[in-house]
Amino acid sequence: MASLFTLVSSSSSVFFFPKKPQKTPPIVHTRRSPLSLTCLHASETNPSPPVQTFWKWLSDQGVVSGKTSVKPAVVPEGLGLVAQRDIARNEPVLEVPKRFWINPDAVAASEIGVACSGLRPWVSVALFLIREKLRDESSWRSYLDILPEYTNSTIFCAGQKRSSLRFKVGIILGNSFAGTQLLNTTLGVKEYVQSEFIKVEKEVILPHSQLFPFPVTLDDFLWAFGILRSRAFSRLRGQNLVLIPLADLLIQTRYVDQINHSPSITTEEYAWEIKGAGLFSRDQLFSLRTPVSVKAGEQVLIQYDLDKSNAELALDYGFVESNPRRNSYTLTLEIAESDPFYGDKLDIAECNGLSETAYFDIVLGQPLPAAMLPYLRLAALGGADAFLLESIFRNTIWGHLELPVSRANEELICQVIQDACKSALSGYLTTIEEDEKLIEEGNLSPRREIAVGVRAGEKKVLQQIDGIFREREKELDELEYYQERRLKDLGLCGEQGEIIFWESK
To answer: In the 8-state DSSP scheme, what is residue 369?
Structure first.
């Protein structure tokens, strides 16, 4: 049963990875991304000249005016939007016409549209950003000049050399992130980006040198990937991937680190919508409103996603929170192909919305996912319990798996899970106590703060999982198993488990 399940990394993108990756990072969990707003007071420092130029460009294009309720300003996080006046709850903060969106449609209408046809949406938009950034004359220059060169996301941990990518990333992140799923995710993401770059370089960039008359490097491609991952709005109505200049100041990074996010925001109200520009207009607007009232001079902040884990926040944006519910660990369970009952088990899993491999996100302080124990029992099913795999039970077996099947089956999953947790915990170079001491002492660099926060959280979740199955193992003699439940249903077993013998008169 060594291959009953494995522990691997997970990610959070909704558009960057193929549906069923094989040698790339695991399938990405798609979660809705509600945008919420709150406020904090901003400083009076004027933004940098590039930001002022960007604002003037928007003003010249009619996107903003003196009546616009927000303006860019220097804030503790770096750069953000600040209220010019009191803004009422649900009042629109800004509206950006579709002609200022950077999305696959904009790429298709550009000079590189034909060359980029058939590419993944994010790849085509990435090439568009790179080309516009490297061109001497670009209509998007004012916007591109305010984009950061990098963030504290772990994907910007090191430079790129194709032959030594995994080695270099491992060296840069190794000690701080050793043992973490985030390290594996970062390695997987960067290898995926590299493979996409090699492909697009061969198929698009080099064959169309007239469109790309300048060198395009893997670093350029990674920069565009990082910009899209941290700033693009996804899952909008009819829009799978779109950059909204000005609106993304709400997800503006500092030129090197923090981003304008508030962990104090707990509402999941959506703060944006796509709407028509008017009764007689076919144009569309990206409209952002505030679900809370904001006072003049206060900063508008955004809640990226209440469901994202700290590892996901670190990978996407380059920060972590102290909220315990941001700590999670992904258990990846699989039905072994070598299992003599592989076909039957796979059929049962698929009939219940699962597959050969199943991912379960375990959150600190939260119960195990409902389908995890049934899937574990299914994967471990064998021996005297294998009769449940017969076709006669096919419509009812999942209900049986929701409860303990047999002592041997339950004991096996408890032992395997505990062994896996022990193995995973042994991969970390520090204890939880050592990490908590570092956090308490402070003075950590942003990236080390991410590493300490993520690894401490993962270890707490692993200890929680281990504890759950350790306690369950102690209760094995007290659990009620399938045979006992069946005998009770037939009236052949009493409430205390005693066998009832029927005597004829």
So the answer is: P
User: Rounded distance, CA 52 to CA 58, Å?
Assistant: 10
| C-alpha dihedral sign at 417, 418, 420, 421 | positive
Vertex 342, ends 473 and 397: CA angle to 5°? 60
pTM (2 d.p.): 0.80
Long-range contacts of 114-118 (CB under 8 A, 24+ apart): 115/204, 115/208, 115/211, 116/204
Is residue 255 among the annotated active site residues? no
Q: Show the tokens assigned to 189.
A: 């993401």
Of the residues 143, 304, 375, 481, only one is catalytic, namely 304
Please state the length of the chain. 505
Nearest to 190 by CA among 161, 163, 153, 222: 222
3-state secondary structure of 368: coil
Nearest of 225, 281, 227 to residue 17 by alpha carbon:
225
Q: What DSSP letter does each residue of 35-85 carry, written as one string?
A: -EEEEEEPPSPPPPHHHHHHHHHHHHTTS--TT-SEEEEEETTEEEEEESS
Give me the amino acid identity at 77: E
Per residue in 107-139, pLDDT (tens digit) is 999 999 999 999 999 999 999 999 999 998 999
Q: Structure tokens of 174?
A: 């190794």
